[in-house]
Design a protein that fits this description.
This protein has one domain. Helix content is about 10%, strand content about 50%. It has two helices and seven strands. It has a seven-stranded antiparallel β-sheet, with no helix packed on it. Strand 6 and strand 7 form a beta hairpin.
Length: about 150
């Protein structure tokens, strides 16, 4: 079946749409550089800590996914970041095998990252739930020579 003359504008429009989609930029993430991060434990106890860290280009993806800190390795089969939104669900385990269930969500731009997560862990066999939050912003393109390279200390 040959396309009719009436379908020519539709086919031309479809071709332009496909060309635009194939040349669309990759999904934007946070940018590498020197960051200041305020990490807060909101419950069950309260703690507030601010760190300045260097995030290298190779580490950006790790900071965009389920990650607690360098004491835990995390497996989050449900995680996504797109359009300025982050969502994840999984389990993080420390070196002693203690597990923390984590469900988090937040927003990001190239220069900001805001996350809130609900966590559940066991203490003395009793389940404890809590909430943690991170509010971070990029403060420089280049990290000072004496800065911490990232949360892993590397």
């Amino acid at each position: 079946m040959r396309p009719s003359r009436n379908s020519a504008p539709l086919l031309a429009g479809l071709a332009c749409t496909l060309a635009a989609a194939s040349s669309a930029p990759a999904e934007e993430t946070i940018r590498p550089g020197y960051w200041e991060a305020r990490d807060r434990v909101l419950s069950p106890l309260q703690e507030d800590k601010t760190d300045r860290i260097c995030i290298a280009a190779k580490d950006v993806a790790r900071f965009m996914t389920c990650y607690i800190n360098h004491h835990y390795s995390c497996e989050c089969p449900e995680q996504s970041y797109s359009g300025g939104q982050i969502h994840y669900r999984g389990v993080c385990t420390d070196a002693k095998g203690r597990q923390v269930s984590i469900v988090g969500a937040g927003t990001y731009t190239p220069d900001t990252l805001r996350l809130t997560a609900d966590v559940t862990f066991k203490l003395g066999g009793l389940p404890i739930t809590g909430r943690v939050a991170t509010d971070a912003h990029r403060i420089a393109d280049v990290c000072p020579a004496d800065s911490v390279r990232n949360h892993t200390g590397g």
